[in-house]
């Protein structure tokens, strides 16, 4: 795949900026000065292929929605796709007509490469080059990591491995104590021990159960007694509240009977009566008020009078009044316009007299009106004449000055000596300069070599087991090989591991014994578990008693001493009977507790087995200690030839590495000494060459340094070159002056011809005017101006006359309309001015309009008042009718009688409401009894004895309460213990179990994390190793060739070797066969190694897949010219396989590329111009 072109339509500071990639070339060098847009163009490539990021820095000129990048891609089959990428969340790919394209079209050219993959593998700048070199250094040259990092462009592999290792170590470490998993496992073990301590013993159970049941019964008895007393107290308190309410209820019922029969009236009778009386009074007042107001309004309406015919002419009066100001202005303006007309007429005649005093009449004015083309032609010719005169004068003056200058230059040229030939001098200077600043290089080498010597001395001082010089050290022979040390180290490690395992097994067996003893103790915590040995012992003792009895029965004689010891003064039959009982009891116990007996026996067997194992471990440990002593003797003997008392294999392996480093550094030191001598000889040779070539030009001091001699030679070179340049410049200057003189002569002829042409045009232009051929151009311009002023004044005169006549007509028409208006009305204004008449008419019209509106308002008001009077009459009738209805219901004939009946009705309603309220209160406090049952219950109680009975009940309750409280408190403690332990666990046990479950969940989670991290590290390592196995040979072979070229043969090849950990690592090989590890290379060399691996990986990818363009951004900023040229040569070769786009802002690289390749091999594009420049 390749780019054919990119068009930054709207991106960054670019607008419609196109970069073409020549299809016949595959190496494109894009050069731009700082701020020319190189970085912007670089970003456009990624955005074009993979889309704009959500946040972009390139939308400062064009908004986010306007950003566009157009381009065309082409694959190896010749297929192309052209599209435009816009910024957005979806449908970001469109064609040139704005139609949305499918993203899969682009994926077909990229073959699944993502944005990150493209950036990491196919884009490289000086920063990522440096990071890649650092990653090689951090990995120690690990072969797999180096190949994978260079191929993928991922330069943080070592950091990933370190992060994974750190995370796993933070979770778990063998024999560690601080990692989370280690701490949790220790806590879980302690928690299991804690839970075992919370078990309840059987012998405490019966006493706890007895106390709990007795306390429970006593409390229940007290509660029953309290309930009975409380029920009796509540009943008495209810009667105490009920008695006064029953008495009040009976009183109210009697009063209700005393009222007798009362007519049924509305509940709000009083409110209705008052409302109707008020409405009757209010309606009467409203009626009287409306009648009085009607009389006054009628009188005011009759007093209004409007002049006849005035309102009919309202539109005309309004129009005349609006035009009054215009009329007044016209009256003032008419005399002023007449005066202005006279002034303009006099001015026109004055102009005509100045131009031509013969034809001074207004009817001849058209003779003074020149055509526009004629006027402009005269003006144009007036401007041209001074310019032609000035040009002739300037041309002639310049010609005289140049001829004088030519004479002076020719004199200087012929007096200048011919400079000497310095070709040999330039060759020597070029040779010396190509060698570079070798004096400074020599100085630095000497300083570096001295530092190397000091470092050697320092390293030897820090080397354990050695007190001699570094020269003596490199002379000794250390025959011990890395593999031998490794073998001894493995043997030593194996012995120590076995010792450690033995100690661990000893601790495990000891802890197992403790655990088994603890489990036996746990089994016997509730009841004693007899063992088989105990049963055998009791039975043996019993059988011995039986032997005594049988002997006595059979023979009659006994061993008195043994018999007395057995019976201990007791009767033999009692002793034997007790032993039989004990043996049977133990046997019965063993049968009932068979499972526990078996468990105890197993634990006892396990304890015996553990003790036997401990004896074996102690014997094995003694053997390992002896084996360790034998190993030490063999190890010491291995180093006898070096007179060194060796340390541990690990330390001696490090000692051998340091010894090798010192020896390698010493060889480098000697090689550098040889190079210093060669540089000194070369400097002397260059100095002699410079002195020889300078001797013919200047006196030379033989003691000067090479730099001083080179400076002197360059100074002479510049001087001679300046002389040649000066002579050449004089020659060029003389030729140029002669050419200018010829040009000025030709110009002179042209100017004289133009002057003749001007005269012909002048005569033609002034024909028909009062300008003659002798009139100067200045005067002619003034006459043309006067023609214009004359006709302009006449045109103004015509305009003023027309305006004056129009105003007079407007005044006459306005006055006529006013006189006609007065005739149509009954008004008379004899002798008054027209504007005063119009103002007065407008004022009277306004008053007439107001009177008309007022008249209409008064008429409407009269109608409203008449309506109000009718409504008041209806309101009075309605109120009187409603009051009559109320009196009929009350069976009375007057308002006063109605009020008396009203009082009795309200009293009846009050008694009924109060009776109803008392009945509801009695039912509420009656404890569910009906009103009849409550009355019946009250009649059974003696009112005077209620308080006495209540006092007695309260006394009994107050005596019971402290007893119950004390009993409940003491029982609460027993109950809490009983409820906790009856379930087999107390609160502490439950909490401990919950904590254990939580701990197990956390252990599972952390274990999963640890497994994931370890698995990730393993998979990454396997992936790297797989990549190494698949790609090591082809990539390493090509990278070795490239590395040799990039280091300018400082290294001859790359090889794979093994480090002290037996890991495959990359090493560089010098011409003399010396191997240099990555950490022994300079930063620049490591960068060149990374670049070699990167280019080799890209070549391999291109051979096996669709090639992808390689985007390079100024990777040579830290390379000198020679290495830059070699790198560009390699990239030029790579461009035969894939497209290379190389960005730079260093003009020196452009020069090197032009020296290195022809125009047919690469394309140069400059970003500092409007369009791409193709070379």
Automatic annotation (TrEMBL):
Residues 1-205 form the YhaN AAA domain. Pfam families: AAA_27. Residues 181-239, 273-330, 600-634, 669-696, 855-889 form a coiled coil. Keywords: Coiled coil. PANTHER family: DOUBLE-STRAND BREAK REPAIR RAD50 ATPASE, PUTATIVE-RELATED. This is AAA domain. It comes from Schinkia azotoformans MEV2011.
């Amino acid at each position: 795949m390749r780019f054919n072109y990119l068009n930054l339509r709207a991106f960054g500071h670019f607008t419609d900026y196109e970069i073409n990639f020549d299809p016949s070339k595959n190496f494109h060098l894009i050069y731009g000065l700082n701020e020319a847009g190189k970085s912007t163009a670089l970003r456009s490539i990624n955005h074009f292929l993979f889309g704009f990021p959500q946040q972009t820095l390139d939308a400062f000129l064009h908004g986010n929605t306007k950003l566009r990048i157009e381009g065309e891609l082409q694959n190896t089959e010749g297929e192309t796709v052209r599209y435009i990428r816009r910024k957005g969340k979806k449908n970001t790919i469109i064609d040139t007509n704005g139609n949305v394209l499918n993203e899969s079209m682009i994926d077909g050219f990229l073959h699944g490469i993502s944005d990150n993959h493209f950036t990491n593998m196919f884009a490289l700048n000086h920063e990522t080059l440096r990071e890649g070199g650092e990653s090689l250094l951090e990995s120690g040259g690990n072969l797999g990591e180096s190949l994978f990092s260079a191929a993928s462009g991922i330069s943080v592999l070592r950091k990933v491995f370190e992060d994974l290792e750190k995370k796993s170590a933070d979770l778990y470490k063998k024999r560690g104590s601080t990692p989370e998993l280690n701490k949790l496992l220790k806590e879980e073990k302690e928690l299991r021990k804690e839970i075992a301590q919370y078990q309840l013993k059987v012998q405490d159970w019966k006493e706890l159960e007895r106390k709990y049941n007795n306390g429970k019964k006593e409390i229940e008895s007290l509660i029953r007694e309290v309930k009975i007393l409380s029920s009796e107290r509540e009943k008495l308190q209810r009667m105490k509240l009920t008695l006064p309410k029953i008495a009040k209820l009976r009183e109210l019922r009697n009063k209700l009977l005393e009222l007798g029969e009362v007519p049924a009236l509305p509940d709000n009778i009083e409110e209705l009566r008052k409302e109707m009386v008020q409405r009757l009074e209010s309606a009467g007042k409203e009626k009287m008020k409306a009648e009085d107001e009607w009389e006054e309004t009628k009188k005011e309406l009759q007093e209004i009078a409007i002049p006849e015919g005035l309102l009919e002419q309202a539109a005309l009066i309004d129009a005349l009044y609006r035009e009054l100001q215009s009329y007044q202005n016209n009256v003032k303006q008419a005399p002023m316009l007449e005066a202005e007309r006279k002034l303009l007429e006099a001015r026109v005649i004055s102009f005509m007299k100045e131009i031509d005093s013969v034809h001074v009449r207004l009817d001849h004015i058209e003779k003074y009106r020149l055509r526009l083309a004629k006027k402009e032609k005269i003006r144009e010719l007036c401007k041209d004449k001074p310019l032609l005169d000035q040009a002739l004068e300037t041309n002639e003056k310049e010609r005289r000055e140049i001829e004088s200058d030519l004479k002076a230059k020719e004199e200087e040229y012929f007096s200048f000596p011919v400079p000497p030939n310095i070709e040999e001098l330039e060759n020597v200077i070029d040779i010396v300069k190509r060698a570079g600043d070798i004096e400074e290089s020599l100085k630095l080498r000497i300083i570096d070599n001295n530092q190397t010597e000091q470092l050697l001395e320092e390293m030897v001082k820090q080397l354990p087991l050695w007190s001699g010089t570094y020269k003596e050290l490199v002379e000794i022979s250390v025959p011990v090989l890395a593999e031998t040390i490794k073998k001894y180290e493995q043997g030593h490690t194996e012995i120590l591991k076995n010792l450690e395992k033995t100690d661990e097994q000893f601790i495990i067996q000891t802890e197992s014994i403790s655990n088994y003893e603890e489990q036996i103790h746990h089994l016997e915590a509730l009841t004693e578990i007899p063992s088989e040995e105990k049963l055998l012992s009791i039975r043996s003792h019993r059988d011995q008693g039986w032997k005594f009895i049988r002997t006595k029965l059979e023979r009659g004689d006994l061993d008195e001493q043994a018999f007395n010891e057995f019976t201990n003064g007791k009767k033999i039959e009692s002793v034997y009977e007790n032993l039989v009982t004990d043996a049977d009891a133990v046997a019965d116990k063993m049968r009932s507790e068979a499972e526990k007996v078996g468990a105890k026996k197993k634990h006892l067997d396990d304890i015996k087995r553990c003790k036997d194992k401990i004896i074996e471990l102690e014997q094995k440990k003694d053997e390992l200690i002896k084996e360790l002593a034998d190993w030490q003797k063999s190890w010491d003997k291995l180093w006898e030839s070096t007179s060194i008392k060796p340390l541990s294999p690990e330390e001696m392996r490090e000692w051998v590495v340091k010894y090798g480093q010192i020896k390698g550094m010493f060889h480098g030191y000697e090689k550098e000494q040889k190079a210093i001598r060669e540089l000194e000889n070369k400097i002397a040779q260059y100095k002699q060459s410079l002195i020889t070539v300078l001797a013919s030009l200047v006196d030379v001091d033989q003691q000067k340094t090479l730099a001083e001699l080179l400076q002197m030679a360059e100074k002479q070179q510049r001087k001679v070159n300046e002389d040649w340049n000066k002579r050449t410049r004089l020659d060029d200057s003389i030729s140029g002056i002669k050419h200018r003189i010829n040009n000025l002569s030709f110009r002179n002829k042209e100017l004289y011809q133009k002057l003749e042409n001007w005269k012909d045009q002048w005569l033609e232009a002034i024909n028909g005017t009062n300008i003659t051929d002798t009139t100067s151009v200045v005067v002619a311009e003034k006459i043309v101006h006067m023609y214009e002023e004359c006709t302009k004044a006449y045109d103004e005169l015509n305009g003023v006359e027309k305006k004056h006549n129009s105003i007079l007509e407007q005044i006459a028409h306005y006055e006529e309309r006013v006189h006609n208006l007065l005739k149509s009305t009954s008004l008379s204004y004899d002798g008054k001015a027209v504007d005063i008449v119009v103002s007065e008419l407008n004022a009277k019209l306004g008053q007439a309009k107001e009177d008309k509106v007022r008249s209409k308002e008064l008429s409407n008001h009269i109608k409203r008042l008449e309506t109000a009077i009718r409504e008041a009459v209806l309101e009075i009738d309605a109120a009187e009718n409603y009051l009559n209805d109320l009196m009929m219901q009350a069976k009375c004939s007057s308002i006063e009688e109605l009020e008396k009946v009203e009082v009795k009705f309200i009293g009846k309603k009050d008694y009924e409401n109060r009776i109803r309220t008392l009945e509801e209160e009695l039912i509420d406090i009656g404890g569910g009894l009906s009103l009849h049952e409550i009355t019946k219950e009250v009649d059974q109680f003696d009112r005077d004895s209620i308080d006495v009975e209540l006092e007695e009940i309260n006394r009994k309750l107050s005596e019971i309460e402290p007893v119950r409280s004390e009993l409940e408190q003491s029982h609460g403690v027993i109950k809490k213990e009983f409820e906790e332990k009856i379930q087999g666990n107390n609160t502490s046990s439950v909490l401990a179990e919950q904590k254990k479950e939580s701990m197990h969940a956390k252990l599972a989670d952390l274990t999963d994390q640890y497994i994931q991290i370890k698995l990730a590290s393993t998979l990454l390592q396997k992936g790297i190793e797989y990549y190494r196995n698949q790609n090591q040979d082809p990539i390493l072979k090509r990278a070795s060739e490239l590395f040799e070229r990039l280091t300018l043969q400082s290294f001859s090849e790359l090889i794979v070797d093994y480090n002290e950990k037996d890991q495959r690592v990359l090493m560089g090989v010098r011409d003399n066969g010396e191997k240099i590890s990555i950490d022994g290379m300079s930063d620049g060399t490591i960068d060149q190694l990374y670049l070699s691996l990167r280019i080799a990986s890209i070549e391999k990818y291109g051979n096996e897949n669709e090639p992808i363009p390689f985007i390079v951004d100024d990777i040579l900023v830290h390379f000198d010219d020679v290495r830059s040229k070699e790198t560009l040569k390699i990239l030029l070769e790579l461009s035969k396989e894939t497209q290379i786009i190389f960005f730079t802002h260093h003009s020196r690289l452009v020069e090197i590329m032009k020296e290195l390749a022809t125009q047919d091999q690469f394309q140069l594009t400059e970003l500092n111009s409007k369009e791409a420049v193709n070379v």
